[in-house]
Structures are given as structure tokens and as C-alpha cells.
Amino acid sequence: MTTIVGVIGGGQLARMMIPAAVNLGIEIRVLAENDGMSADLAAFGVGDYRDLEVVLAFAETVDVITFDHEHVPQEILRELVARGIAVHPGPDALLYAQDKLLMRQKLSDLGLPVPEWARIENVEQLAEFLADHGGRAVVKTARGGYDGKGVRVVSHAHDVDDWFMALAEDANGGALLVEELVDFTRELAQLVARRPSGEIVAWPVVETVQQNGVCAEVIAPAPHSSGKLAEVAEAIAVAVAEGIGVTGVMAVELFETTDERLLINELAMRPHNSGHWSMDGSTTSQFEQHLRAVLDLPLGGTAARDAWSVMVNILGGPTTGSLVERYPGAFQAYPSVKVHNYGKDPRPGRKVGHVTAGGDDLDDVVYQARATAAFFQD
Amino acid sequence: MTTIVGVIGGGQLARMMIPAAVNLGIEIRVLAENDGMSADLAAFGVGDYRDLEVVLAFAETVDVITFDHEHVPQEILRELVARGIAVHPGPDALLYAQDKLLMRQKLSDLGLPVPEWARIENVEQLAEFLADHGGRAVVKTARGGYDGKGVRVVSHAHDVDDWFMALAEDANGGALLVEELVDFTRELAQLVARRPSGEIVAWPVVETVQQNGVCAEVIAPAPHSSGKLAEVAEAIAVAVAEGIGVTGVMAVELFETTDERLLINELAMRPHNSGHWSMDGSTTSQFEQHLRAVLDLPLGGTAARDAWSVMVNILGGPTTGSLVERYPGAFQAYPSVKVHNYGKDPRPGRKVGHVTAGGDDLDDVVYQARATAAFFQD
């Protein structure tokens, strides 16, 4: 009897669950959006995750459904649950990853630290929020944003007229989320995993470096995070996971403010770019942990294996040729840096892979990771 | 353009190449002996590796041919090479893994330390060897032995009459290998990797513990192996790899004698049970290294990640149910021990998985590894 995990979505997150599944002797089946995606090796088939019949047919072949992304519609998720199919994370939790307004409201209700925010439906409400917050703010679409998309820094009430127009034309109505522009010194991320029966584990809090709204580098653990800062970050993520009932891996993106507070920025209810370092740098990778969690198995150790791990994304990739063609140079120069290649065609800005270096000297580890990644970018 | 490695043989060694291939974005295709084997996820198809047409058709779809085992006939290997197909390790090297008499002769010619040995064709020759070596010896069939099969400790010249009879009936003739019964304190294994262009790297020498002729435990590095012992073991393995022209990963099994010598016992020209610890305990696993080597890519770092790594095989598995059914207990008790499940049905004596523990305190690491493995055996 083989245990089978079904993953909806065929991107690199599904792909990186494959090695963990192979090691544990768990079968993984992927419902991919298209042929030739990152997780092709484990592809069960290609189908539209917005089509109930497609998702149901897939679900019948597996023991638990989980996700490469958070975009499966609520009505489909709820129908799966109604039919007794194990879905992790479940629809109640995913709701907050799908809708930033609901997420902000829920976190506020839970008493968790978030930036000041408001729900706005028109220019007047935005103008009022701007007036109350020094004339600048961040506006986000409630749905559909990722990697910096659907996020705009504004200083005029008319800066998001196009979004208000789109809402007005949307039969479902809706609203935008406006938030104070947080005065932060850096961004952190706290990765946790929670299993249905309640156990939660946390990895060390990490520092994330964003470029153009996309995660570029992660340092694990976050420098200067020993003691209270790490405790607070973990406590916030645990409260979120329990408060929302998340199952599987969840990343909480945090701002560390100039006045030493941590505020929740975004949530991701799945393995997350900020946790890729764990594949090489922690006792249990976030992908193995996600499989353990969604199968309600006891969770694995989350200790760091090196004093410092640094992950650098390969964004875009080479303008000519494949990543593999760059292996001779990169491997020769940096034999101990681990290279992860998502099997995607290079394209400007696309996440096509990442590298992770580890060691005792942070400056050297940062240098090795960046220098290795540079072999894969022109 | 995807780089494709073709693996002949669908056992657990092929299976454990899959995670490494996924991480590196290298496609792996397996020619399996049967349906439902360990490496099924990457199966290209099922076919007989002794059938030239089958192997040629497979080889045409890949960039390099390598192996899960050493049993592909020489005439097929040589035909592949004659057609310009990259085969690693090549037939000249594999010859010595396929025939223990040729291996012993070659190692003797290279001046490397081996037990005293002789080629014997009849009872009289065995009697003479026994008389010269204290009345006891080890007799091995030249071909076909593994995991203790084809190996017999003898004290009478008639103890292998069945094997002599089989040779007499074999149209190809042949002979047996007889060796002195080495007075050893323990067994070691030295894992190295060599790429076609010549680079060689070595992992730390390990201690192996055999039970009934099958590897049961591996301690990495071998206790009391710092300094000269490690140097000698590495020098022997490097000399073997260069002398025989091995490409890919090779394990040299060694006896450490009571008079402090190292003698070569067996060679394995592929990833080897004695190197499984490297998946969790070294910067580069033997499976990633094998892929790098057969693709002639620069080799990865071989440092140990923990002071001690201990691997314990899961032999046989539970008498009822699957390995996965034992995960709740094992994971709860030992959250940081890594479990590897080969996806094979339990059967007495069969290698169905292994576990690896790591840490600073050898006693504790041994205990954790053994205790975790015990969850999977009745």
C-alpha cells in the first residue's frame, strides 16, 4: 500500500517535493497546468484546477490533496472537503492566503501585529488614508498578487484609478487594501509547519532581501536574531498558524521596523522561497516537512546544519543556453555550493533556480552564494 | 536542451539518483528489469539489459549510460562504446567488477595490497592452498556474487565440490578464486569518485559492519581513522580508480588487519551501500557525485557535515504492513534521524531502506540510528 500525495500545480514547489517523496517512499502525483512544467517527472496529468470535475478525478487517485500555489477556487476546495477528501491546507485557511483583505481583518481580530490598514472602495477613502498617514501608502489588490504584482506604492489618491475602475466593472464588486508604508530596517520571514493534529515546529527566523518586489537572497538565521527577536517571530507565526488553522508549511513575511517591532506583511500557506535554504541547511527541508505535515506524521527537526546558510535565487537565468551549460564553471569554482535547477526555460525575471551556500563565516558564505549564482546570469 | 542520464537497472541505487537529478535539473531515465521497481518514477521502460537491441534503443535516447549494477555483459558494453555512446564506468573498468579473478590479478599487477590469493580449478589446487594457509581459506566464484552470495569459508578441500562441478559443466570453463582468511580487526570502505577527465575526490574512510555477509551499519568517518590510516585508505582507492580507469563513484572495501595493514577486499564501481550516509552526512551525496562524474562535470565537496554519521540498513522490513505505517512511531521518537524508503515490498533479508543519524556524540548517534531502524523491523 503506497501513500499518495496529490499536488495541484506543477511549478518548482511541487518539483522540490519530489526528492523528499522519493526519499520517504511516498508517491507524489502532480496535476500540472501545462505540459513540460517543473514538476513534470511526477505529473499525473495536465488539467485546469478551476474545473471541479478535473480536480475531483485527480483527488480520487490520491490520499491527500495539497498545493503548489494558493489559487484553487474556494468552491472547489469546499466540495473536496464535503466529499471527505483530505485537503491540506484546508479552504478555511487558504481563504486568507487568497484574499488580503480577509487576511488583514483576521490578523487584526487575532490581535496580531500588522501595519495600519483599511479597506477602500474609492478615491475618497484612499485620499483620507493618505492624509492620515503622511501622504504615502501601499495599495494592494485583495486577490491575485504575488512577487510584487498587485502592489503599488502611492502618494496620490488617483494613483490606482485603474484598479478602482476594474473593481467597478467587476460584477463581484470588491475593494482594495491600503496599508501604511512601514518604516522598516529589513524584512524577515518565519517558516513554520503545522500538522492537522496540532503539532507545530518552527525553523530559525531568516532575513530576506527583496529586489523589485521579488525575493533575491535569504540569510538563515537572520543576523542579530538570537534571543528575543527570534522568540517574537516564532510566537507570531505560531499564533497565525493556530489562529487560522493552517496545515502544512507556512511562511510569515515580517517587517522589522525602525522602532524594533515586527509587523506581519504577507502569508504564504505552502513551502516558500524564504525556506529553500532548508533543503541544504536544515535537518528537515521544508518540502519533506510539508509532506510529513499534510500526512499528519510527526514533524522533523528544524535545526540549522550550518552556522550560516545563504540562498540566492537565480532570476532569469542565462540569456543564451541552459543552466546546465554553466555547470562546469560554477562547479569548478564553488564545489561545495548546492545548485538547484527548476528545469524551466530562462526568461527575464523568472525564478529558474537557486543556490545555497553554508559555513561558519557569513561574509564568505554570502560571497560564495552570490558568486555561484552569478555564473547563471549574464 | 536537457541533459539526460540513462541508468541501466531499476533498483534502489537508480532510485536514489532521482533526487540528485531533480535538484540539478538533469533528466534521468531508467531501464528497469521489471515493472514496479524502486526507480519506477524515472522508468523509461522495462527491458532485458542482456539484449543488445533493447540496450541500444535505450541508449539512443540518452546522453550517457551508467548503471545500477555491474551485470551488463561485456559484449553489449563494448558495442555501445564502439558506436560512440558514452558509457561510465566503461567496459574496461567494469570487467574487474564483473570478474573477481581478473580483479585480483589486476590489483596484484598494480602492486596494491590484497590478501594472498590463487586461481584454482580443482580440488588438488584448493588442498594445496589450504595447506599453505593454515588449513582455512575463503573461496569465491569469479562471477555473480554479491551480498555474501558466492562466498564460502572453507576448511576442507571438498567444501566447494558443487562449484567445481558447476565449472566442469560450464562450456566456458572458468576457475574459482581462493584467498587467505584475513585476520582483520574490522572492515572499512573508501568511497571515491573519478570523472573521465581525471579529477578524483574522496570521502572520509568509513567503518562498515557486516551481518551474514550483508552490510548492516556504516560509521562515518571510521573511528580512530584520522591521520595516516585515512591517508593510506584514500591512496589505495585513488590508485585503484586510476589504475583501472574507473569513472563515476567507486567503493573499495578494505580489511584492517590485526597487524595494521589495509588489504583490498572487494570493489564496487557504482554508488555503494557504504556511501549512503553521504546523502545526509556529506556536502555532496554519492548519487549527486555519480551524476556529476558520469557527465564529466567538476566534482562536489566531500566534507562530512557532522562529526559522526551513522547509517543503519533496514533489512527485511516489518513482517506486516509497510514501512510508512511505522513512520508515526519512528518520527515521533527520532525527529532528526533521516529515513530512506526504497519503495520495495518487505521480504526477509532484503534491503528495503536505511536510516542515517548525525551528531557530535558517537554513542548517541549510533543509538539513535539503531533505535530508528528498529521501528521498521519486527
UniProtKB/TrEMBL annotation, chains A, B:
Q: Which GO terms describe its biological process?
A: 'de novo' IMP biosynthetic process
Q: Which Pfam families does UniProt cross-reference here?
A: ATP-grasp, PurK_C, RS_preATP-grasp-like
EC nos: 6.3.4.18
- The ATP-grasp domain sits at 104-295
Catalytic activity of the protein: 5-amino-1-(5-phospho-beta-D-ribosyl)imidazole + hydrogencarbonate + ATP = 5-carboxyamino-1-(5-phospho-D-ribosyl)imidazole + ADP + phosphate + 2 H(+)
Q: Name one GO molecular function term.
A: 5-(carboxyamino)imidazole ribonucleotide synthase activity
Keyword field contains Transferase: no
Key word ATP-binding present in the record?
yes
What sort of enzyme, by top EC class, is this?
A: ligase
- Please provide, in alphabetical order, the Gene Ontology terms of the cellular component aspect for this entry: cytosol
Its keywords, alphabetically, are:
ATP-binding, Ligase, Nucleotide-binding, Purine biosynthesis
* UniProt-listed SUPFAM superfamilies: Glutathione synthetase ATP-binding domain-like (SSF56059), PreATP-grasp domain (SSF52440), Rudiment single hybrid motif (SSF51246)
Q: Tell me the pathway.
A: Purine metabolism; IMP biosynthesis via de novo pathway; 5-amino-1-(5-phospho-D-ribosyl)imidazole-4-carboxylate from 5-amino-1-(5-phospho-D-ribosyl)imidazole (N5-CAIR route): step 1/2
Amino-acid positions noted as binding ATP in the UniProt annotation, renumbered to this chain: K100, K140, E179, E180, L181, V182, E187, N265, E266
Entry superkingdom: Bacteria
Role noted for this protein: Catalyzes the ATP-dependent conversion of 5-aminoimidazole ribonucleotide (AIR) and HCO(3)(-) to N5-carboxyaminoimidazole ribonucleotide (N5-CAIR).
The family line of this record is: Belongs to the PurK/PurT family.
Subunit info here reads: Homodimer.
Name of the featured protein? N5-carboxyaminoimidazole ribonucleotide synthase
Q: Which gene encodes it?
A: purK
